[in-house]
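Exercise: predict the fold of this chain.
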Amino acid sequence: MGYEVNRPEGTFYIFMKTPIADDIAFIRLLAREGVLAVPGAGFGRTGYMRLSLTVPHDMIERSFAGFAAALAACK
């Protein structure tokens, strides 16, 4: 899809690089698409977002359209 992410090593969340430098602004775009994420700035990782992997698999799959729409809004 175009996002940069590293495979987590034993954790139940991931930090994914946001496509724009302002992670808070990007989180707002995601929220408009119905996707909840946490800005990385709150964890000392500006330019990233934190996503939980503890939700049901089908919820993750349903979020793909929102991630695609938010990414397209940045271009």
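Check your answer against the key: The mean pLDDT is 92.
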